[in-house]
Specification:
heterodimer; A: Jelly Rolls; 8-stranded antiparallel beta sheet; 17 strands; B: alpha+beta; 5-stranded antiparallel beta sheet; 3-stranded antiparallel beta sheet; 30% helix; 42% strand
Chain lengths: 364, 182
């Protein structure tokens, strides 16, 4: 048998077993390190969102305890979130930020509600005023609706801005909206019940149903700063005085189970892009000029801060099931199950907590 | 092994070693930054855990403390003065005596001040302690127009720390109903 001799400069082909094992060992260490880094960040993010969900659920339980027991009406079939809304809490919505704006009445900054997209006949933005609760107060705000807001004479599609007043939650409070009416001919009629075309509309929301309190017609165009003022006084009746640029445009009152106090918020309606400045609530003025960060007084954490798969539907990340306990015929005790959900990496996560709330307000 | 093979081998090993060292250093830096972020999160939760205990025990919010003299702490959006039922030995509550707890900010720290009713044999101890030092902002809200009528309070807390040269901020929320409200 002949044996081939190795020529000078000709290296051996292939790796030895030891070399291969060592290489695999080094590569596996590096891969493990990299995977570990990535998963650590994921774990931290998941923990932070879960912590926020738990805080929101606890907040809702506390809010339900403070609610009059007669208002704890049964809520079931929570597979559909609209059947089981959170009660007695109001949440912010939309993308609000302090931005530099050369046209702002108080330079250099204004508060911006970024352009919403895909909202139809619904609120697209909400930002609560700093105090937890307001009674008698006058709210003044300078507003400019940007030209890229969606105009439409159909109130289900056209933009609007305004405020909610003395709101207990999304289904109970007063709502004031200002829609478009400019010389170019776009006039959004918000009050389809009253004769004529009205672009300023005040309504009462009770149990999710709206009742008109008054409406009027005022020139309001995109690209122009207006001073909007809403004064709300009294408890029975509750009286309203609405002004635009210092002129009273609407007065009204509510004497049918009126709301004595509650939260106030700036709102955006449908696909609107708005700028806000010089906001006053009777206790102070905010011009947002000190920093590009939203002041903590205006910061809230809520359901709409959690990522979900339905961004054009607000407040659907949480449900509250309310049922009599221990039997369906029980009248003095309710079992409430609060569930907060969010989406992480295309997977729905949930946090659930249960509590008993009694008629004597000694929650268990 | 020829000289060329040895040089190539040393060069390849050098690159591999540099890569491993770089990954090791990056991992260490990342681990440190994640620990800093966790510390910011933990700071917020630590504060809210402490505040939760006192807020739940509260009877009411007082307008200010002390009623005379200085310094004075006023209940509002930056501080809260709580009236708590005096706790006695055996974990019972005094029927009428009141201890005072004040939460206020001092720079980047959130401070708890206790004024116990020693005459009523309160088991609480007078004094001031710093709960955490990473506080950027603290905001208090109440469920009534007049703070002294409040039966619940919401605390919004922002803690912050510089991580890898940039500020890392965590916002935490606490909402509590006063269990001893008359």
């Amino acid at each position: 048998m002949e044996r081939k001799s190795r020529q000078p400069g000709q290296s051996k082909a292939g790796f030895t077993l030891v070399e291969s094992i060592l290489s695999l060992f080094v590569v596996s260490i590096m891969v493990a390190l990299l995977v570990g880094l990535a998963s650590t960040r994921d774990v931290n993010r998941r923990a932070a969102q879960r912590s926020q969900a738990a805080a929101l659920a606890d907040e809702e339980i506390n809010a339900l305890r403070r609610l009059d027991f007669t208002l704890l009406t049964d809520q079931t079939n929570c597979v559909t979130p609209s059947n089981c809304p959170f009660k007695n809490v109001l949440y912010n919505a939309g993308r609000w930020a302090v931005v530099a704006d050369g046209t702002a009445p108080s330079q250099p900054n204004a508060l911006e509600l970024a352009l919403a997209s895909g909202f139809t006949n619904t609120q697209s933005g909400q930002l609560q005023f700093p105090a937890g609760t307001y009674g008698d107060a006058t709210f003044t705000v300078q507003v400019k609706v940007a030209t890229d807001s969606v105009s439409n004479s159909n109130p289900s599609l056209g933009w609007a801005v305004g405020m909610t007043l003395r709101s207990r939650d999304a289904a109970n409070g007063y709502r004031l909206r200002f829609a478009e009416n400019d010389a170019a001919g776009v006039l959004t009629d918000l009050d389809t019940v009253a004769a004529g075309v009205q672009n300023v509309y005040l309504e009462k929301i009770a149990g999710g149903s709206a009742t008109p309190l008054g409406s009027t017609n005022v020139t309001l165009a995109k690209g122009t700063w207006y001073t909007l003022e809403a004064a709300i006084t009294g408890t029975s009746p509750v009286s309203f005085t609405i002004k635009v640029d210092g002129t009273t445009v609407l007065t009204s009152s509510d004497s049918s189970s009126p709301y004595a106090s509650g939260s106030t918020a700036l709102i955006g309606w449908n696909d609107v892009h708005a700028l806000v400045d010089d906001v006053q609530d009777g206790s102070g003025t905010w011009n947002f000029d000190g920093s590009t960060e939203l002041p903590l007084a205006w910061v809230r954490l809520g359901l709409n801060d959690l990522p979900d798969s339905t961004p054009t539907t607000l407040n659907d990340n949480g449900t509250v099931e309310i049922v009599p306990y221990p039997q369906p015929s029980s009248v003095d005790l309710k079992k409430v199950t609060v569930t907060v959900g969010w989406v992480q990496k295309n997977t729905t996560q949930t946090y659930t907590t249960t509590s008993l709330i009694g008629k004597s307000e000694l929650g268990l | 092994m020829t000289l060329a093979e040895m040089l190539v081998g040393v060069f390849v090993m050098g690159i591999a070693g540099w890569i491993v060292y770089d990954v090791y250093v990056s991992a260490g830096r990342f681990s440190g930054s994640e620990q800093d972020r966790i510390e910011v999160d933990v700071s917020a939760n630590r504060v809210l855990t402490v505040m939760d205990q006192y807020l739940r025990q509260a009877k009411s919010v007082l307008a200010q403390y002390p009623t005379s003299g200085a310094p004075t702490y006023t209940s509002g959006d930056s501080a809260v003065v709580l009236a708590l039922p005096t706790t006695l030995a055996g974990n019972t509550l005094h029927a009428s005596a009141t201890d005072i707890a004040v939460f206020y900010r001092n720079g980047t720290a959130l401070v708890l001040l206790i004024d116990a009713d020693e005459g009523a044999s309160s088991t609480r101890t007078d004094g001031t302690r710093e709960i955490t030092a990473n506080v950027k902002d603290a905001f208090f809200r109440y469920n009534t127009v007049a703070v002294t009528s409040a039966t619940a309070a919401t605390v919004l807390l922002r803690t912050q720390r510089t991580v890898l040269g940039a500020p890392y901020t965590q916002t935490a929320l606490l909402n509590v109903t006063f269990r001893n409200h008359p």
